[in-house]
Amino acid sequence: MKKIKVVIDDMNFYVVGNEDEKYIRSLAGELDKNIKEVKRNNYRLNQMQAVLLASLNVLDRAEKNKKILNEVQNISKDEKKLMGVIEELEESKKSNNEATEKYRAEFKKNRELADEINALKEENKNLISDINQKKLDIKLLKEDLENQEKSKKKLHDTIYENQKQIIELSRRIENLTNED
Fold first, then answer.
1. Whole-angstrom Cα distance, residue 79 to residue 73?
2. Which sequence ranges form a coiled-coil region, renumbered to this chain (predicted)?
3. What is the DSSP track for 15-56?
4. Could you tell me which residues are beta bridge partners of residue 7?
5. 56 — alpha (psi -120 to 50), left (phi > 0) or beta?
6. What one-character-per-residue DSSP string does 49-98 give?
7. pTM over 0.85
8. What is the spatial distance between Cα 75 and Cα 146, in angstroms, rounded to a whole number?
9. pLDDT tens figures, 67-104
């Protein structure tokens, strides 16, 4: 235990304790300063009234500091909660980024497949057009073949008729020759 002499409002006091001397003197100096400030602002107060009012001011500041400390501690607790929420959000963001990358990759694949499908559709359209053209060509060829067949039949019929006429003419010639 130490015995430390301090001066507060021009009065000597001895403070007994285990605290650091510098710390005790700084507290006494702060209290002395507060009492003198109260006296300066309220010159009608006696020494006891000034000490009481200064003590009240010190207690008021101490209470306000306690409230601030409680708020800071609450903020600190809230900050820990907030940090937890931030970590969860970061994890969620990371998960969302991964999902977005997967979605983009799938979207790219789907786009490529859609492009392939469109190309196949175009190719299919061209093939159908070619098939329709071939069908038309076949139809025209069939019509031409039918016309050729009809012409051939007419020619056969004409040949047959001509042969009949030749035979008939040959008989006449023979008959004429035989008559001579």
1. 9
2. 82-179
3. EEESS-HHHHHHHHHHHHHHHHHHHHH-TT--HHHHHHHHHH
4. 12
5. alpha
6. HHHHHHHHHHHHHHHHHHHHHHHHHHHHHHHHHHHHHHHHHHHHHHHHHH
7. no
8. 101
9. 988 888 877 777 777 777 788 888 888 988 999 899 89
Phi-psi region of 10 (alpha: psi -120 to 50; beta: other; left: phi over 0): left
95-137 tens-digit pLDDT = 889 998 998 999 999 999 999 999 999 999 999 999 999 999 9
First-residue to last-residue Cα distance in the chain: 185
| The one-letter amino acid at 65 | N
Strands 2-8, 11-17: pairing kind: antiparallel
All residues at 6 or more sequence positions from 133 whose CB lies less than 8 Å from its CB, including other chains: none
At residue 30, the 3 state secondary structure works out as helix
No. of helices (H) and no. of strands (E), the chain: 2, 2
**What's phi and psi for 44, nearest 5 deg?**
-85, -15
Whether the Cβ atoms of residue 1 and residue 17 lie closer than 8 Å to each other:
yes
> How far apart, in whole angstroms, are the C-alpha atoms of residue 114 and residue 108?
10
Measured CA to CA, the distance from residue 89 to residue 134 in angstroms comes to 65
68 token code pair: 């601030």
